[in-house]
Amino acid sequence: MSEVRIIAVIGAGTMGRSIAQAAAVGGFRTILEDILPNALRKAEDAIRAELGRAVSTGSVEQREADAALARIEYASNLEDAARDADMVIEAVPDELESKLEIFVLLDKVCRPETMIVSHTQIQSITELASVIYRAPKCIAMWFPKPPQTSVALEIVRGLETSDETATAAVAVAQRMKREPILLRETPGAITARMQALISNEAFKMLGEGLASAEEIDRALQQGLGLPMGPIAEAEQYGLERRLRMMEYLHKTLGETYRPAPLLEQYVKANKRALAVSR
Ligand SMILES: NC(=O)c1ccc[n+]([C@@H]2O[C@H](COP(=O)([O-])OP(=O)(O)OC[C@H]3O[C@@H](n4cnc5c(N)ncnc54)[C@H](O)[C@@H]3O)[C@@H](O)[C@H]2O)c1
């Protein structure tokens, strides 16, 4: 397999722009694509601001930041973005139909040797790869949040992912200054599965009336050394998205993952947990 030089990222939202930034800092020529021009403008501003912050904290040197910015191109058309890429990472919203559509399109426009990566929390890379002709060249990567600073990067092999693709994905992750963890396919991978379970448990405790949402969050954040309280984290992630994740984990992994009734109620009522319990 030839060396990866050009990475295209499809979808310039929260994760896509951070992945593009990590790729550019890692020395790859990077093309960031989105269907919405406004998303591209926001992504460009966010990457500049984020690199500026990294320079001010000393984690990146000014000349590295300038070189990274110069390596990023922005595209509003998938074909233009993916045509020359050695690896394409899709980071569009986690809906099966959207991801399948992107995979089929990429299979048509990419060179035969190009690897296709899905940045997904809940879709099966085996299923995504099953609709295209290059399943051995497909793999999933998952940057935990916050993607700018989280070092671990989970890399999930599908049923047909080749050793070559897995090795190349690990090498790309290392150049992005991440610590790759290569794992077998499992719903939610490692971090998302545990994160979902912790916030679901916090909602169960809230439903049992153990304490207020703020107190439960404070206890868990301080007691477990978490970066933020699990209820606040779920709100930031989106309660509806978290409920969908729990439903998926419940369906695939069993009873341990049954969604907390209070989480279901808050989603139905369109309420935020912390606001409701105040
Ligand atoms: N945000 C998180 O907490 C998080 C964490 C880990 C993994 N993920 C996963 O990363 C992926 C992206 O999530 P996000 O939070 O960045 O989403 P987001 O909604 O912030 O961004 C998605 C972007 O994709 C663009 N898009 C939609 N359809 C497109 C298409 N056909 N072609 C090109 N661009 C298109 C949208 O315009 C949007 O800018 C999802 O699979 C998600 O599950 C998200």
Could you give a quick summary of the protein structure above?
Strands 3-2-1-4-5-6-7-8 form an 8-stranded mixed beta sheet, sandwiched between helices. It is 52% helix and 14% strand.
Question: Could you characterize the architecture of this molecule?
Answer:
Residues 7-185 form the 3-hydroxyacyl-CoA dehydrogenase NAD binding domain. The protein has 278 residues and is α/β, with parallel strands linked by helices. The chain folds into 2 domains: 6-184, Rossmann fold (3-Layer(aba) Sandwich); 192-277, Orthogonal Bundle (N-(1-d-carboxylethyl)-l-norvaline Dehydrogenase, domain 2). The protein contains 13 helices and 8 strands. An 8-stranded mixed beta sheet has the order 3-2-1-4-5-6-7-8, with helices on both faces. Strand 5, helix 6 and strand 6 form a beta-alpha-beta unit. It is globular, with a radius of gyration of 19 Å. The chain starts with 5 loop residues before the first strand and ends with a helix.
Topology of this structure?
Elements: E1 6-10, H1 14-25, E2 29-33, H2 37-56, H3 62-71, E3 72-75, H4 78-82, E4 87-90, H5 96-109, E5 115-118, H6 125-129, E6 138-142, E7 152-157, H7 163-175, E8 179-184, H8 191-207, H9 213-224, H10 230-237, H11 239-253, H12 261-269, H13 273-277
Parallel strand pairs: 1-2, 1-4, 2-3, 4-5, 5-6, 7-8
Antiparallel strand pairs: 6-7
Helix pairs in contact: 1-2, 1-3, 8-9, 8-10, 8-11
This protein binds nicotinamide-adenine-dinucleotide.
Nicotinamide-adenine-dinucleotide (NAD) is lined by residues 10-16, 33-36, 39, 78, 91-94, 98, 102, 119-121, 142, 145, 237.
